[in-house]
């Protein structure tokens, strides 16, 4: 390659790379008017909410609106920053007290420009402003806090979460005081009597289709070779996959060889050359299921 | 319920074994040289009488009909109930034959085995063979079973007379793992009248789909030629699970409506069942249907490179591409500098 070619190739490569980088950072836009120009607007972190116990910093702040205000005449309104950025509407939370419980409902948060709401967490505190103890409730817009003490005021917030569990929008705080003898509203319920008539809960009007959450395929459970002696640490002779439990997996493994020929010696628990109900009865005697979570 | 009881009284010399009463050997007093063989015989007989009931009737199956008297054209349910008499059972197998007054086999119209003491079935009861229902399964962990439901058979008698049920089967106990113990053969007769009794309560109908569907994808070199396979487990408290179906497709489908879908390539599977496609190349769904047609669908997982995941990884790939580009640029610059 000649020197002239080399000198030509470098700028071309830089130009291509610049275009590539420009696409990746195309969000930054200069703002102009006949009187002024705002160059290279940036986003900056902003204090979202504080208390004596914690500070919550949002990842970006909306600085394009309200940075300064304009009246009339020669005073210009300055609107700096990004006009378009990922945004999630804040859920509007309401709470209805019950007996030792509080029914919570909120409007669905709507994410735009790339942010998707994948679930909600309900924060609960005995102190206004927090700190809150958050509990994930999934992609729902109602929840009930139970096990509360009647007569005690509780403070709640609800936070929308993205697919990674990050809090991307948090409601304003609401409070409720559970009272003995009060029946909180139940979705779809009817009838019954009582002195307390809860206010009607108007469901949010859905303007967008709720996001679809598609869980990934769980990892494949690799069953170690069924050998004699077994590989791994087996709970009992019936723990065929040596995972410490005798459960439906072991049952399925044995069922694979049910009434078959050429069965592995270790699957044949009675060592009589076949897998039948007698072998399964031995497995049942050793049954030891893993605790549910 | 049947019980065998041995009555031991002083009036029964055979059982009590006292020589000072009138003997079956004669009116004379027992001579001393005869006392030992007679007592030995008495002891052996006593032992046999006590031994056999303990082993033969350590568990039994009984029938409970609802309504107790059937009527022509009216569905009747016959519940098969197990009692292990305090012993811990781990497995049960059985066969029930049902014949009418004319001796012909009677067809079972439906079966419910939800909520059974059998926790996992090896051979599920079916209505395929007229007049005969066979089953086997295990009681996970082993349990003392006290008059608990095994399964319920439903019939619609076509003529008056008697339906006769005969049960035979085996049970396994923890005291002798893997050794079957024969259950006593039990017969049960159900009277069929012309007209139904008044105030007959309706029989239970299952309208609740299966729940708690769990699926595991596993792999073992000795099973299915090393291909990944799926294990599905679900619960149905009423009629019981009828079948599992598997769907492996290339695009995501929302769960709503899949319960009754007939267009997608669902395939009925055994448990376990090998996957048709390599792992992480298809969206996998499982449909579980109970014996009365209620279905529930569970989504097992998305492929590794689904559009959703691709979107998540997009930014990471972009950053990687930029870094590679910068590295390439630097390398080029150094190469050009060295060359010049």
From TrEMBL, chain A:
Keywords: Signal. One of its GO terms (biological process) is polysaccharide catabolic process. It comes from the Bacteria. Residues 87-186 form the Fibronectin type-III domain. Residues 1-28 form the signal peptide. PROSITE patterns: EF_HAND_1 (PS00018), FN3 (PS50853). The keyword Transmembrane helix does not apply. This is Fibronectin type-III domain-containing protein. It comes from Candidatus Lloydbacteria bacterium RIFCSPHIGHO2_02_FULL_54_17. The lineage of its organism: Bacteria, Candidatus Lloydiibacteriota.
UniProtKB/TrEMBL annotation, chain B:
This is Cohesin domain-containing protein. It comes from Candidatus Lloydbacteria bacterium RIFCSPHIGHO2_02_FULL_54_17. The chain crosses the membrane at residues 317-336. Keywords: Membrane, Transmembrane, Transmembrane helix.
């Amino acid at each position: 390659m000649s020197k002239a070619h080399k000198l030509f190739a470098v700028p071309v490569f830089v130009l291509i790379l610049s275009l590539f980088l420009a696409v990746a950072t195309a969000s930054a836009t200069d703002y102009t008017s006949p009187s002024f120009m705002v160059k290279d607007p940036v986003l900056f972190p902003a204090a979202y909410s504080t208390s004596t116990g914690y500070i919550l910093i949002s990842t970006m702040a909306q600085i394009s609106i309200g940075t300064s205000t304009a009246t009339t005449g020669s005073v210009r309104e300055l609107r700096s920053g990004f006009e378009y950025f990922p945004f999630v509407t804040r859920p509007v939370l309401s709470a209805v007290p019950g007996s030792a419980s509080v029914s919570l409902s909120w409007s669905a948060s709507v994410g735009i420009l790339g942010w998707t709401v994948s679930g909600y967490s309900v924060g609960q505190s005995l102190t206004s402003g927090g700190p809150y103890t958050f509990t994930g409730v999934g992609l729902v817009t109602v929840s009930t806090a139970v096990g509360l003490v009647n007569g005690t005021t509780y403070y709640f917030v609800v936070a929308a979460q993205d697919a990674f569990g990050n809090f991307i929008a948090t409601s304003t705080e609401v409070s409720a005081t559970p009272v003995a003898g009060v029946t909180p509203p139940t979705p779809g319920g009817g009838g019954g009597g009582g002195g307390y008539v809860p206010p009607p809960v108007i469901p949010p009007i859905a303007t967008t289709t709720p996001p679809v959450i598609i869980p990934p395929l769980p990892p494949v459970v690799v069953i170690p070779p069924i050998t004699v002696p077994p590989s791994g640490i087996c709970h009992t002779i019936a723990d065929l996959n040596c995972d410490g439990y005798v459960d439906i997996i072991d049952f399925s493994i044995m069922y694979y060889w049910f009434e078959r020929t050429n069965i592995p010696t270790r699957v044949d628990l009675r060592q009589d050359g076949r897998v039948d109900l007698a072998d399964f009865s031995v497995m049942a005697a050793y049954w030891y299921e893993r605790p549910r979570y | 319920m049947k019980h065998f009881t041995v009555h031991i009284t002083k009036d029964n010399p055979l059982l009590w074994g006292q020589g000072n009463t009138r003997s079956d050997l004669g009116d004379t007093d027992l001579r001393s040289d005869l006392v030992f063989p007679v007592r030995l015989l008495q002891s052996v007989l006593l032992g046999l009488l006590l031994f056999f009931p303990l082993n033969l009737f350590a568990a039994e199956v009984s029938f409970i009909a609802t309504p107790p008297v059937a009527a022509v054209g009216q569905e009747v349910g016959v519940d098969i109930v197990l009692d292990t008499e305090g012993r811990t059972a781990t497995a049960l197998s059985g066969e029930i034959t049902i014949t009418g007054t004319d001796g012909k086999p009677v067809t079972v119209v439906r079966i419910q085995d939800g909520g059974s003491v059998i926790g996992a079935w090896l051979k599920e009861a079916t209505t395929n063979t007229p007049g005969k229902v066979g089953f086997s399964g295990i009681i996970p962990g082993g349990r003392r079973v006290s008059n608990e439901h095994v399964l319920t058979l439903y019939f619609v008698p076509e003529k008056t007379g008697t339906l006769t049920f005969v049960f035979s089967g085996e049970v396994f106990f923890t005291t002798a793992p893997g050794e079957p113990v024969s259950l006593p053969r039990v017969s049960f007769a159900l009277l069929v009248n012309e007209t139904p009794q008044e105030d007959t309560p309706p029989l239970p109908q299952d309208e609740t789909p299966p729940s708690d569907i769990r699926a595991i994808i596993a792999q073992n070199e000795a099973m299915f030629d090393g291909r990944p396979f799926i294990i599905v487990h679900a619960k149905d408290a009423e009629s019981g699970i009828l079948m599992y179906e598997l769907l492996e497709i290339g695009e995501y489908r929302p769960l709503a409506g899949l319960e009754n879908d007939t267009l997608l390539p669902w395939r009925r599977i055994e448990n376990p069942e090998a996957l048709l496609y390599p792992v992480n190349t298809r969206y996998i769904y499982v449909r579980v249907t109970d014996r009365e047609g209620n279905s529930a669908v569970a989504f097992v997982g998305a492929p590794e490179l689904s559009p959703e995941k691709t979107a998540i990884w997009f930014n990471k790939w972009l950053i990687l591409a930029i870094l590679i580009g910068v590295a390439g640029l630097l390398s080029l610059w150094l190469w050009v500098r060295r060359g010049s």
